[in-house]
Amino acid sequence: MAAASTGGLGGLDLKNNADIAALLGLTTDELSAQLEAGKSLSDLAGEKSVAVDTVTAKVVSLLTAALDQRLADGKLTQTTYDAQKATLAEQADRIVSRTFAGHDGAHGKGGKARAGEGAPDAAPNDASGNSASASAAIEG
């Protein structure tokens, strides 16, 4: 079960994601505390003897489901969907290896950064003005 987005990487609220927590044998509170303490999902996977590829595949799955929903809801064109879907594996790799210490989500307190502003991996906006990373938001 996916948690609602609160501004996490790729719109995915990793700190409170029940699917990710369960995969790592943690509660959502434990996951949040570990990420806020500066550990990455890759670090946690190693500590819990979970293959990093397994965690990455879960992140890809969650991002794909959110992207599919945005397409179904008419919030993305097929062209934008295809372009964003082509980058999901790379985005998931960055998410899994990134640390969260000192941040509220991906871009600090106060909301999401725009492409090129404080977020080196922020994706460009689609035709509707939504950033590609925000377009993958998980809706609870």
Short description:
This protein has helices spanning 18-23, 28-36, 41-47, 52-72, 78-85, 88-97. It is mainly alpha-helical and 140 residues long. The protein has one domain.
Overview of the molecule:
- The chain is mostly helical.
- The protein has one domain.
- It has helices at residues 18-23, 28-36, 41-47, 52-72, 78-85, 88-97.
- Helix 4 runs antiparallel to helix 5 and helix 4 packs across helix 6.
- The radius of gyration is 14 Å and the shape is elongated.
- The termini are close together.
Task: Please supply descriptive tags for the structure shown above.
140 residues, mainly alpha, elongated, disordered C terminus
First CA to last CA: what distance?
8 Å
How many β-strands, per DSSP? 0
Give the overall silhouette.
elongated
- Unreliable spans: 1-10, 103-140
Q: What is the domain tally?
A: 1
How many helices? The count is 6
The chain-level mean pLDDT equals 74
Radius of gyration in whole Å, from Cα?
14 Å
Order of helices and strands: HHHHHH
Helix content: 40-55%
Major sheet size, sense and barrel closure: none
Strand content: under 5%
Content-based structural category: mainly alpha
Task: Please write out the topology.
Elements: H1 18-23, H2 28-36, H3 41-47, H4 52-72, H5 78-85, H6 88-97
